[in-house]
Amino acid sequence: MKEILLCKYGEIVLKGSNRRYFEDTLCKTLRHRAKHYGNFEITRSQSTLIIEPKDEYADIDGMFESTQRVFGIVGISRCAVCEKSMEAIERTVKEYVPQFLLDKRTFKVVAKRSDKRFIPDSMGIAREVGGYVLSALPHMRVDVKNPDIVVQVEIREFAAYIHAGQFKGAGGMPVGTAGKGLLLLSGGIDSPVAGYMMAKRGVQLEAVHFESFPYTSEMAREKVLQLAREISRYAGTFTVHIVSLTHIQEELVKASEEDYFTLLLR
Q: Would you state the torsion angle of the CA atoms of residues 146, 152, 155, 159, taken in this order, to the nearest 10 degrees?
């Protein structure tokens, strides 16, 4: 069974004539991340990004986890691809969908047909797929108004796509679409949170950390670098510039009164 990822945009859909720039930046980010997980193809279709593994060695689980941390994507669905026939859809629903419904009690089915030649129509597909789910999971019941999960069937030009539920993405805007910014990374909690929030609005980060070795320890430096690694899981790779203030501090101690030292240092 072939599995792909369907990724929904966030604010990008509100962009006008420059929307393609935001989409291209997002695709570039995903292609860069995909290199770590194997051979994937990333394409666009109707405000959706499709991430498709191109061979059996591609790590779809690793790519899924990484994609959840990409700014610019609000929702991700794991999706099975099958032949455009009700027999293939029935087989795929019974094999693939139950794993997403084990802790759920109610569901509804939504069907969409890009290929209007496909029979039955959307209502007919939803009705039959609902029957497949109930036969595979008798404890489930249909709730069209407030279901625990939505099972979706999309009939597209070359295949049928089947998915259940949507996982939350990181939201925001693609990193790099709002220029560059410098993050003062101190080692406390405020600066990494600020860096995360900057990156979420599309800022490409660089960071600077001021140290006073040997008055500050190697452990303090490593803590800062570890914080940078955590931010980079969302913001992508960025440079951390470590600047030593030891000589300046020692000169200030010699040249200033103690009462003014902190003020001058800041």
A: 180
Pairing of strands 180-184, 204-211: parallel
92 lies in the same domain as 202: no
Regarding beta strands 106-113 and 149-155, do their DSSP bridges make them parallel or antiparallel, or are they unpaired?
A: parallel
Which CATH number fits the domain that encloses residue 212?
Answer: 3.40.50.620
- Name the burial class of residue 179, with classes exposed (0-12), middle (13-18) and buried (19+) by CB atoms within 10 angstroms of its CB: exposed
**Could you tell me which of 160, 85, 144 has the C-alpha nearest to residue 109?**
144
Q: How many CA atoms lie within 13 A of 67 on its CB side?
A: 35
CB of 137 within 8 A of CB of 55? no
Asked if residue 196 and residue 101 are part of one domain, the reply reads no
| Four-point Cα dihedral 195, 197, 202, 207, nearest 10 | -10
Name residue 107's beta-bridge partners. Answer: 142, 149
Buried b (16+ CB within 10 A) or exposed e, 122-146: beebbebbbebbeeebeebeeeeee
Question: What's the pLDDT tens digit per position in 210-254?
Answer: 998 887 888 989 999 999 999 999 999 999 999 998 888 888 888
DSSP-derived letter for residue 45 is -
Quote the number of domains for the chain.
2
- Quote the pTM value: 0.87
pLDDT of 256 reads 81
The alpha helices in the chain, defined as continuous H runs, are 19-34, 60-67, 86-96, 98-101, 122-136, 190-200, 218-235, 246-255, 258-265
Distance CA 60, CA 66 (A): 10
Q: Look at residue 1 in the predicted model and tell me its pLDDT.
A: 84
